TrEMBL record:
It holds the Pfam family Phosphorylase. The gene is glgP. InterPro entries: Glycg_phsphrylas, Glyco_trans_35, Pyridoxal_P_attach_site. This is Alpha-1,4 glucan phosphorylase. The modification N6-(pyridoxal phosphate)lysine is found at residue 677. Its cofactor is pyridoxal 5'-phosphate. Residues 1-22 are annotated as: Disordered. GO terms for molecular function: glycogen phosphorylase activity; pyridoxal phosphate binding. Its EC number is 2.4.1.1. Keywords: Carbohydrate metabolism, Glycogen metabolism, Glycosyltransferase, Phosphoprotein, Pyridoxal phosphate, Transferase. One of its GO terms (cellular component) is cytoplasm. One of its GO terms (biological process) is glycogen catabolic process.
Amino acid sequence: MNEATSVSAKPEQPARHEFGSVPFSGRPDALFERHLLSDAVVEPSTAYDRQRFEALARSVRDLLSRRWIETQRTYDQQNPKRIYYMSMEFLIGRSLANNVMNLMLKPFIERTAHEGGLDWLGLVEQEPDAGLGNGGLGRLAACFLDSMATMQLPAMGYGLRYEYGMFRQSIERGWQREHPDGWLRRQDPWEVSRRSQFVEVALGCTFEMHRGGLQIVANRPSTLIGIPYDRPVVGFGGKTINSLRLWSATAQDAFDFQEFSSGDFVGALVGGIAAQTLTRVLYPDDSTEMGQGLRFAQEYFLVACSLADLVRRFRRDNRDWNLLPDKVAIQLNDTHPTLAVPELMRILLDEAHLDWEQSWGLTQRTLAYTNHTLLPEALEKWPLRYFQQMLPRHLEIIYEINHRFLSDVRRRYPGDEARVERVSLIEEGPDNKDKVRMANLAIVGSHSTNGVAAIHSELLRTTTVRDLAEFFPERFNNKTNGVTPRRWLLLANPALSGAITGAIGDGWTTDFDKIARLKPAAEDAAFRRSFLQAKRDAKARFANWLKSTSGQVVDPDSIFDCQIKRIHEYKRQMLNALRIVVLYNRLRANPALDMAPRTFFFGGKAAPAYRLAKLIIKFINNLAGTIDGDPAIRGRIKVVFLPEYCVSLAERLMPAADVSNQISTAGFEASGTSNMKFMMNGALTVGTRDGATIEMAQEAGEENLFLFGLTAQQVVDSRGWYSPYWHYENDTETRAALDLIASDYFSRNERGAFRLLHDTLLKHGDHYMHLADLTAYLEADRALCSLYADREAWARKAILNVASSGKFSSDRTIAQYAREIWHVKPCPVA
């Protein structure tokens, strides 16, 4: 069956328009009116903004529908090797503006909107960010899909259709509050339901609602139904339109008519409600037993639906199972989809009836694994009881994989039982609390394991999974992350991208290596003026937007100093806050101090169960309130925590940022991608030698960044003797900052509120070494402010950063994946 046959039909009298090099059918203005009349059943003149947005989005979908169909038809006819990118997150943001840009329809749509008296930007604002991801992992997956489509690679993304996303963040009395993110409460105009392509997923247990909660009932097998919803992934120029397929869960018997007839109206619906809960929320709170079980079930549901779907597609065109690795490349985005290893083995063993050796060889050659973390606690380990309850057959397969693998290890390393224990897929725990090590399973069950930055890949091999890397040295490789310059520069920053195009042409949009041609412009006074003007305009736009949406007033002539990312101790938002406390103390001690006005922006979410991360958010907000309330400091330092950080907010802030903080403890950040987006938009980086920041400095020159702090090796070497008390006793400003926090200066009406933060830094060992790096951070900050005072010198370095960001395009990353891991070639659509 063609994958896009149910996309909206063409208008009755189509016109042909050429946008870029690709023909599209229909007139947007005629389609727009038709959708208002036929879908919303309103007169165009009386429609409200949400109805107009939906009509415009459906009109754009109509325009791309033929190309979407042709893309899938080309794949069906040519039967190329296809990429299936499997991820629990796809942080795609809004789709309307991005699709219009990639279809090269923007001038026409904007003109049509203007002639029709429509507010184009207002319509764009009507679309919520899709609640399909949380942070860098999901945004990376979205950038990768964009690059695959732009590069005309035959690919499909697989994820889950979360009804409520992770959560919507608000700030109340400084604390993070979590609310349902009902992004699908209104129909999404981009998705296409494919109910006829449903998948049945068998479990060894049943989910039931009990006293308002979800419970697992063991030894009662059940079947879930996965309903696919497709979204178009438009490559730049509209030549290729791939699909992102999202799975929604329902029960096989969602409505029990017999119970309903007997008068049990609630019981008749309970089965369906329990099943649908599976895809209700991204990352259920895993601080509870039920939350952990639900997340495990989510991961299997994604894997089972996706493998059944891609195997069905493979078997439609290929009768020989031995062709599977030649026609299918499956990329596991982190450990979340690792259950693909035993699930693919189950399919090959139990459904295809292949022998073990053949099945194992096909599985390993088809699957590849991307690791995104060095944190041991982030390498998933699932209790054996979950497998016993839900997936007993998969546990049998994992045991057999482990038995054979450990036999190979013993043959190569006779007598080394300590090594055998370290590499085993099963981690033995006390009281029969054994767990399956999902990272080990992913490495053993695939042909490639890649890290996402040079330092990360090296530490992964030499530290995190050293024994496995020594056993499989040929499987380990690096693929430094990248982001799409089309979304993060061309779309997000039209003023700067226009200046760049005026200087070097528009070839950079699809070949970002050409951005290097901008380097001579750093010495061009006229271009420096254009750059500084684009930055000032972006800051003014952001300030106006912030005031209109939140009432917060910021000075666009101040330094916009930004740290936006998931809130976590290792990312060290608290180090940034300590820097601000020191600067605040300096101004309190010397109000006449010459210090450029600063606005410090923070943004990011803390996991609901992560108490210390939520306390850091509380401290940042109390710090902001205290500084705002000090008339001697007001206007010189301002701290702003931006709630509900998302793709759309980032698209506004990145162009406005002067400074990007990438200050993780060295050796803890896998890569980072916000650092790349800031760099592309002309912000200068103050950061540690960690993640991809190291490679950014190599590309731009260390003299064009502000690097500071311990290296990853120094962090490791100092573990045995590091004492935060030394810095407290010997660094006057460090001691003053910590004493001010301990004195409840920032929590006058909440005595002791920040005692845990103070004690974590000083009494509990400061594991992430905030105090070790604070003085060096302040020196980097001093250099930053000195440079900012010379606007011409600042512009030179900022332009050189933009011109040196070519390596960090997701197009380059995907080209490496395609060439070195997937062995997939472009499949152009005629």
